[in-house]
Amino acid sequence: MALRRGEIDLALTYLGRDLLSRDFYTRKVATVPSLAALPIKHRLASQTQISISQLKNEHFLRVPGTSAPGYNQKISQFCVQYGRFRPRFAAMRNFTSLAEGLSLSANVDEISLYPSSISHLRIPNVVMVPIADMGARRGIYLLPVNEAKPPAHCKLCWTRLLLNLADLRSSGRFLER
Questions:
Q1: What value does the mean pLDDT of the chain take?
Q2: Radius of gyration of the chain (CA)
Q3: pTM of the model
Q4: Nearest-angstrom CA–CA distance, 36 and 119
Q5: Which domain does 22 fall in, by range?
Q6: Which residues are CB-contacts of 14 (< 8 A; sequence separation ≥ 6)?
Q7: Considering the domain boundaries, does residue 134 fall inside one?
Q8: Count of domains for the chain
Q9: Percent of the residues in the chain that have a pLDDT greater than 70, as a whole number
């Protein structure tokens, strides 16, 4: 991970807070609803929103913990809690970016669930449909290397990031903690 190797000064993530908080200070900066990434020809792709229970007979994208720590566990939690079923995960898929993971959903007919903060992404043959279950929300976390004393070159970026998050909250795109 680039943060552990010292290649970046901070990260904004929705995954693996439990794992990452062992090594880094994590700050929850927002809570956002979830969405389902569906193949464009999926039976639910034309819906304005769907409940997790409607995904009961679907196959879900399974990703390695090294690519997306906590992702599979969060999917399982949402399916059991809001859909009353255990998800059927497809074979393990490796990918190097979020866009590639979303493309996999379209190409192999597997469902994936993400925070709505990615809804601006446009991936060919993928439709993002909001999840109606109000409790199926994702925390967005900021992981600075050292929040109390960020590197000098990072102070301006840090300030801008916090201001941008405030703008997103006021626009309704992110919800308050």
A1: 79
A2: 17
A3: 0.76
A4: 10
A5: 10-145
A6: 32, 114, 115, 117, 138, 139, 140, 141
A7: yes
A8: 1
A9: 69
